[in-house]
Amino acid sequence: MSTREPTPVPTSTRACLAGEDLDWIGHRSVCVAVDLPTRVRTVTGHSAAEHPAVAATATEVWEYLCARLPQGGPRTRPAVEVDASAPLNSGLSSSSALIIGLFRAFTHRLGTVDEAAVLQWSYDFEYAICHGGGMDQTAIVTGGAVLTEGRDGTLPVLAGQAPFPTDWRLVVVDSATAKDTAGHLAQVRARHAQRDPRLARYVTEADHSAEQAWRAITGQDLDALTAAMDRAHTAMRDIQGMSTDTLEGIRDLARRTAGLRLKITGAGGGGAMVGVCAAADAAAVEEVLTAALAGPYPRARIPVATAAPPAAAVLRPVHAAGPQGGHGPGVLVALPGTGLR
To answer: What distances in angstroms separate CA 319 from CA 89, 133, 193, 220, 308, one per listed residue?
Structure first.
């Protein structure tokens, strides 16, 4: 017999509006936490509902967590039930949301934990697997819109945090084609080590796009944000080769039929694209896009979402950048308390 915990733990996903790969190369990225949450519920007793991939990740997170608790942890992890609102393997960081959600659910069961500890643990856990940057975890845990400055091997600098305008909506168009983020990261790391001039060109263009996007968000200028995201997508497509024929076909249809400009979210080809529109226009945009994509792209999904609000008190922005890849004045600074108590 199984007993469910009373409340599942929700964890937002994230959309990257500009600056893919820059969270570890060392420049600026802009992300927003998206209210398409992954909900994790711990279950007392055996649960036959665990997907094998979820079960494997849950076991790894449980063992990682128990190894870091002062008193250790129970030998047997609780079973979990997971409900994901966002399309999987789409560039919305659903895997990071699952890992953060598991850390939250397990620590809530064992005691209380500061979100700063969850952020650090989730970043370290994923870095050991794919050696990516930390903009995903930072955006998800911090909430709202975030401007980060990348570091390799440590969490990025949180250079800015702001609420995403409440009268804007995030329109996600999932192409139902899979991403290969791990393969992309390995390829870009090799190019970075070789000082590839084409990669350097992308970094410059993406960094400028992120700066432009951040000014647009804080200035609540939707047209400027659309232009910044368009610039970021163009760099991803034309310089980095991250787009595909399917994505470009969907993007062209969205622009022609709904007047919506879409940008790939997340490194690697395939997956989802994201656009931003006024809340008052969101229902009409969704209706037009659904009709336009139904014939040529019947598997496409179009969730429309709000941004998740900023967390009350997790981290504070640090404006003085520390050395690349090193701890110091440039790392994220947690508010007091960083562990189980």
So the answer is: 33, 19, 28, 22, 23
DSSP state letter for 80: E
Residue holding tokens 């995201």? 229
Query: Does residue 291 sit within a domain?
Result: yes
Enter the tokens of residue 138. 């930072």
For residue 328, being part of any structural domain is answered with no
Q: In this structure, how many other beta carbons lie within 10 angstroms of the beta carbon of residue 324?
A: 14
Is 52 among the domain residues?
Answer: yes
CATH label of the domain that carries residue 202: 3.30.230.120
> In the chain, what's the furthest Cα-to-Cα distance?
60
Query: Is the CB of residue 262 less than 8 Å from the CB of residue 173?
Result: yes
What number of other Cβ atoms are within 10 A of residue 315's Cβ?
20
In this prediction, residues 187-212 reach a mean pLDDT of 95
Structure tokens, 221: 């200028």
Which structural domain, as residue segments, surrounds residue 94?
3-305
Per the structure, the count of domains in the chain is 1
Q: Which residue has the tokens 């997790």?
A: 314
CA angle 176, 225, 233 (to 5 degrees): 45
Distance of CA 324 to CAs 105, 148, 152, 186, 277, Å? 33, 13, 7, 20, 36
- From the list 318, 31, 20, 325, the residue with the least C-alpha distance to 170 is 31
Contact 270, 183 (CB under 8 A): no
The answer to whether the beta carbons of residues 271 and 89 sit under 8 Å apart is yes
Taking alpha carbons only, the member of 2, 331, 276 closest to residue 149 is: 331
Kindly state the tokens that stand for 77.
Answer: 């992890």
CB 31 within 8 A of CB 12: no
Q: Report residue 14: phi and psi, to 5°.
A: -145, 150
Q: Which residues of 178-205 are buried (b: 16+ CB within 10 A; e: fewer)?
A: ebebeebbeebbebbeeeeeebeebbeb
> DSSP secondary-structure letter at 69?
S
DSSP β-bridge partners for residue 14: 33
Q: Which pTM was predicted? A: 0.88
SS3 82: strand
Burial class of residue 316 (count of CB atoms within 10 Å of its CB; 0-12, 13-18, 19+): exposed
**Per-residue pLDDT for 332 more than 50?**
no
pLDDT digits 0-9 by tens, 10-21: 999 999 999 999
- Asked, for residue 201, whether it belongs to a domain, the answer is yes
